[in-house]
Design goal:
Elements (H helix, E strand, L loop, with lengths): L2 H8 L9 H12 L18 H22 L18 E5 L27 H14 L5 E5 L11 E5 L6 H9 L5 E4 L9 E4 L6 E2 L2 E9 H4 L1 H6 L6 E2 L2 E16 L7 E7 L2 H9 L7 H11 L5 E10 L2 E2 L10 E5 L17
Length: 348
């Protein structure tokens, strides 16, 4: 190992922490300090005895806990970006468009079959994919539909895109995060989206906002066509309405399936909210300010927040966290004071 690397770990002014795989190797080395001939060497994990394996696992856990105690609960973003990681793999779990709403090009028998037509929240995925690949050029980055996921794909750094309606993994993760006070739930008055509700007494709810269009009436379109196009929520009392504001959910926590990995959640009531959660830390106009706000507000790097996403002419905007009313709710497992709405912001 290079002397400069060790020096960077021991620096008093700008210390760097050893990556997780290096701690794994250290624990493996000290679980059996020498080979049969007495020469120190790194053993293979499968060659350990039962006693050596127990020592290896205990050492690895101790080293990880010491590392986490220095820098906080979850991996600090490398290079100052929440999308940059020290190690891989990085896996994006994506929602899937219901079969009855897919393009014909999503059918494998179609000569022009295009796999990504099966993906929901595709705008958010494209925006996120480019950022993550650019920030992690040397790491493995993969994407999977929730229905394709197997246990091995939940390890490392996990990014869950979309809400519980079309992403089964989002639902599983939510059930795992028992301390998280923000829950996404189905309600009877919304057919195509799920609102956010707090588990605190009173169960405050966060919902999208709408603007009515008087010029279009239900009879002119037809209820059957509206249902087929997944637009039921855009109608109330026979009149058409347009989405004016969505709610975005952005969280960075420890991955409950991987002790040294992170979990990032980008969700919304509707797809504009999912895109807004991503844009908050990718859009060039606000991402730097938002990243600075998050670093200052949540110094350990572990947080969850609900944000207001403006929708203008059908397009989602990036929430600016320097505007207090855009921060609907903030929470950190390391700071009881953040278990309340930020500032004087009120719920919808």
């Amino acid at each position: 190992m290079a002397v400069a690397t060790i020096s960077s770990w021991e620096s008093r002014t700008n210390p760097k922490l050893p990556p997780a795989e290096r701690l794994h190797a250290y624990a493996l080395f000290f679980s059996r300090t020498s080979a049969a001939d007495g020469t120190p060497r790194l053993p293979r994990e499968r060659d350990l005895t039962e006693a050596q394996r127990d020592r290896f696992q205990a050492l690895r856990q101790e080293l990880i806990e010491l590392r986490d105690a220095v820098r906080g609960v979850v991996d600090s973003p490398a290079g100052g970006s929440i999308w940059a990681f020290e190690t891989g793999p990085i896996t994006i779990i994506c929602p899937e468009v219901p079969a009855n709403s897919r393009s014909p090009l999503a059918e494998e028998g179609n000569p022009n079959y295009t796999e990504t037509y099966r993906y929901a929240d595709l705008d958010a995925l494209i925006e996120l994919w480019g950022q993550i690949r650019a920030a992690n050029p040397g790491l493995q980055v993969t994407r999977w539909l929730a229905a394709e996921v197997v246990p091995d794909q939940l390890t490392g750094h996990l990014i869950v895109l979309g809400g519980i309606g079309w992403n089964q993994v989002a639902d599983r993760v939510q059930r795992k995060l028992k301390d998280l006070p923000i829950q996404q739930v189905e309600v009877t008055d919304l057919k195509n989206g799920e609102i956010f509700r707090l588990s605190e007494p009173g169960g405050r709810e966060f919902r999208p906002q709408w603007m009515e269009h008087e010029s279009v009436i239900l009879e002119a379109v037809g209820a059957e066509q509206i249902a087929a196009e997944q637009t039921e929520d855009a109608w109330r009392d026979g009149k058409h309405r347009a989405l004016a504001e969505d709610v975005a959910f952005l969280a960075r926590l420890r991955n409950p399936y991987s002790p040294h990995g992170t979990l990032t959640i980008c969700s919304g009531v509707y797809s504009r909210g999912v895109l807004g959660a991503v844009l908050a830390l990718t859009d060039a106009t606000v991402s730097e300010r938002n990243a600075a706000y998050i670093a200052s507000r949540f110094p350990t790097g572990s947080f969850a927040m609900l944000m207001k996403v403006p929708v203008v002419n059908g397009k989602a905007g990036a929430p600016d966290l320097e505007v207090p009313e855009n921060r609907l709710y903030e929470w950190s497992p390391n700071d009881d004071a953040t278990k309340r709405a930020a500032g004087s912001a009120s719920s919808y």
